[in-house]
């Protein structure tokens, strides 16, 4: 089911902008902060769980400088950690036109795997047109039709297999180096099993077997869902008024038993802890869809698409705490965490992180936001 239209309707129904805090927090400029370039992590640490962890008390705004191995002590037995089990596809393929011009093909999503249809971004020195062929190491890719700022293309054979064979790891644009073989392992979480993402759910990159075992001994539970992160996750907010921004659609799937597990967690007085903003968006999307259906279900289960834009004023229904990385200035992800903890508290935490030389973005350090 395509739920993107339903989510846009719900967004208007809940009239999120009417709940925005007083002041100018609806302006993108109010979600800016200074960041020295040297704090943008260019490579992962040798050990996944070696990252630092900044704890932000959602109620008081208090900060504590910790490390990822401290996480189990910050959670309670019976808390539920929810991870995103999407798997990153090697989404970047280099090709050339018959005339010799270079073309980069960047996967957005697979439309029909067996039929080889995919939605992609194209980067070429000159204009391309329908019917044109791009030669790649895995065979010819045919351009079918433009779709807004992207293109529908046909790959030789299975689309996923084509990108797995010929593609390179789609490192984010703020990592100023080419992807190498190590990134194929480290730009995936230990939970990655459902291929379809073109960017990693980076909060989950901090978890290794030692940390997971420590969480199990603590009595912390875990569950998974799927949201395939699209290339639009790096799309900038192009209007100064954030209310005019429209989110890209991302496919998700919620397991049928997750609603029951979350309900049991909350009934026991424990917390639902989202590991990453992708999990936050999926859980809150599924909760809004369930509310619209009017039944007793806490979450809409099954597959759908989310265009939900979480910004200050949003009323969270499911998520009690959040583990997340540090996000880009002026980004929708920074607006999401500001909705959860308050813009002033988040910007103060980010200033603290800069002053204390935390590592930022995908391969950077982590932040736990909880009461």
Short précis:
This protein has helices at about 5-15, 70-75, 160-165, 180-185, 210-220, 260-265, 275-295, 330-340, 345-355, and strands at about 50-55, 65, 80-85, 85-90, 90-95, 100-110, 115-125, 135, 140-145, 150-155, 195, 220-225, 250-255, 270-275, 300-305, 320-325, 365-370.
Q: What does this molecule look like?
A:
The protein contains nine helices and 17 strands. About 4% of the residues have low confidence.
Radius of gyration: 21 Å
The secondary structure category is alpha/beta
Number of helices: 9
How much helix is in the residues? 10-25%
Spatial order of the strands in the main sheet?
2-1-17-16-14-3-12-13-15
Can you tell me the CATH architecture of the largest domain? 3-Layer(aba) Sandwich
Tell me, rounded to a whole number, the average pLDDT. 92
**Kindly, what is the distance between the CA atoms of the first and last residues, rounded to a whole number of angstroms?**
35 Å
Instruction: Please count the beta strands (DSSP E, at least 2 residues each).
Output: 17
Given as residue ranges, the uncertain stretches (5+ residues, pLDDT < 50) are 12-24
- The fold-level CATH name of the largest domain is QueA-like
Classified in CATH, the superfamily of the largest domain is QueA-like
Largest sheet: 9 strands, mixed
CATH class wording of the largest domain: Alpha Beta
- Number of structural units classed as domains: 2
The best one-word shape is globular
Notable characteristics:
six-stranded antiparallel β-sheet; 371 residues; alpha/beta; globular; QueA-like; single chain; 24% helix; 2 domains
């Amino acid at each position: 089911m395509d739920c993107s239209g339903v989510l846009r309707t719900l967004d208007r129904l809940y009239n999120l902008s009417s709940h925005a805090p007083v002041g100018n927090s609806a302006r993108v400029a109010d979600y800016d902060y200074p960041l020295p370039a040297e704090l943008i992590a260019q490579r992962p640490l040798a050990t996944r769980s070696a990252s630092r962890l900044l704890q932000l008390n959602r109620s008081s705004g208090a900060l504590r400088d910790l490390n990822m191995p401290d996480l189990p002590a910050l959670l309670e037995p019976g808390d539920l950690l929810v991870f995103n089990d999407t798997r990153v596809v090697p989404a970047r393929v280099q090709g050339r036109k018959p005339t010799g011009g270079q073309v980069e093909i960047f996967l957005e999503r697979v439309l029909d795997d067996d039929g080889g249809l995919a939605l992609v971004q194209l980067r070429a020195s000159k204009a391309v047109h329908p019917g044109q062929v791009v030669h790649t190491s895995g065979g010819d890719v045919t351009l079918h039709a433009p779709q807004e700022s992207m293109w529908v293309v046909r790959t030789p054979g299975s689309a996923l297999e084509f990108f797995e064979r010929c593609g390179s790891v789609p490192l984010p644009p703020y990592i100023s180096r080419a992807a190498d073989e190590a990134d194929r392992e480290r730009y995936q979480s230990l939970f990655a099993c459902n291929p379809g993402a073109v960017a990693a759910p980076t909060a989950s990159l901090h978890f290794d077997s030692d940390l997971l075992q420590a969480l199990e001994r603590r009595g912390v539970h875990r569950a998974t869902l799927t949201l395939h992160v699209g290339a639009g996750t790096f799309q900038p907010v192009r209007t100064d008024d954030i209310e005019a921004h429209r989110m890209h659609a991302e496919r998700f799937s919620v397991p049928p038993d997750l609603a029951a597990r979350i309900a049991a967690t909350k009934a026991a007085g424990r917390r639902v802890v989202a590991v990453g903003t992708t999990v936050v968006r999926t859980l809150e999307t599924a909760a809004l869809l369930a509310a619209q259906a009017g039944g007793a279900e806490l979450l809409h289960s099954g597959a759908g698409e989310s265009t939900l834009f979480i910004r200050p004023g949003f009323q969270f229904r499911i998520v009690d705490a959040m583990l997340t990385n540090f996000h880009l200035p002026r980004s929708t992800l920074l607006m999401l965490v500001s909705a959860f903890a308050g813009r002033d508290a988040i910007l103060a935490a980010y200033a603290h992180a800069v002053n204390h030389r935390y590592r930022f973005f995908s391969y950077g350090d982590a932040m736990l936001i909880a009461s």
